[in-house]
Amino acid sequence: MFSRDNWDEIIEALSSNWFRTILTAFGVLWGIFILVILLAAGKGLENGVKQGFGGIATNTMFMWTQTASKPYKGLPKGRRYNFKTDDVAAIKDEVPNLRFVSPRNQLGGFGGTNNVVRGLNTGAYNVYGDYPEIIQQEPMDITSGRFVNYSDINEKRKVAVIGEGVRSGMYKTGEEVIGTYLKINGVNFMVIGTYKKKGNNGNQEEAQKQIYVPFTAFSQAFNRGNDVGWMAITAQDNASITELKPLVFEIIKSRHSIHPEDERAVGHFDLYEEFSKINGLFVALKGVAYFVGILVLLSGIIGISNIMLIVVKERTNEIGVRRALGASPWNIRGQILMESIFLTIISGMAGIVLATLVLYIVNFAMRGMDTSEMMFSNPSVDLGVILTALAILVISGLLAGLIPAQNAIKVKPVDALRTE
């Protein structure tokens, strides 16, 4: 344990040449500042990209039919087939750890022909036949009314939930929409709710121009029978849809007489797999940030090590006297190491404070901005990063003082006293 005299000695040794000490400390300050800023910038980019998923259940796969690429059981290649509602039940029964299996049908599409009419207004919109679970797979904010429920499904009610983009295109500003009717492909549907999609999926405007109706009413109104256009399948949180999808494909291929090795017959988009790749990218970015920051910090540590060597050289007489008066090698080594650690931590903490101030200013400037359309949001670092930075500083201080401390204990008292 160090007494006040020891601390006074540390302060005196480092303040004997303020300009030299400040220049040396700046290297560590700059290194830790760069490290924190790089990590915060990476986190800001991560927040912005993940915000683009808009709260979508990322453990989800979307699956649709394609043409068979191999003949099987007397059936030719190139044939088309459709999912059926029985396929949905089979997947739910035979595949474990699934949270949702949502069959979907669709009309229209971006750039399609006008399929929705209200009075003199017409528009081309995506119209989906869905089950209520889809709102948990593709989250949206219900801005008025309600979403589709199971009473709508069971009774095949011709009701619709429209996006804010549809509302602005088909209705006047301030006009009440709940209880009104839209004609979709010649069939009237009553509007029961409006929504606004979350996040930024790269096509935010089109995401607001969609209409959701009950799956059963869609099938009845547009003569789809028991056909299913595509499915949204979400796994439980303790499972991975990427690991479960081969079993899903196996069930579909078996039920539709598709060759087991036909990899093209079932189209799919694995959102979890893509999300995992993005997470891997950010892990790599964090590693790069640590690598670059530590390299910059290393240059500062080398500077501190050099300055401590100079300090030891300047205090050769003092060290010789202390050795002659009985100071142990550990006392000498400890004093030099403490000076090195003290200088490193003080300069490093100054770098952390400066970086925190910069991040505060950036976040304050972004506070009034709409970041939903940006790929960057809330740059920040958590407590774990700060603790990691402090650990790096302590280790760096030890390394910086190790060689000077070893040189100090090699000083022989007689030789030191002869230096004058």
From TrEMBL:
InterPro entries: ABC3_permease_C, MacB_PCD, Macrolide_Exporter_MacB. Its main location: membrane. Keywords: Cell membrane, Membrane, Transmembrane, Transmembrane helix. Residues 21-245 form the MacB-like periplasmic core domain. Residues 291-412 form the ABC3 transporter permease C-terminal domain. It is a multi-pass membrane protein. The chain crosses the membrane at residues 21-41, 288-312, 341-363, 383-403. It is found in: Cell membrane. Belongs to the ABC-4 integral membrane protein family. This is ABC transporter permease. It comes from Salinimicrobium flavum.
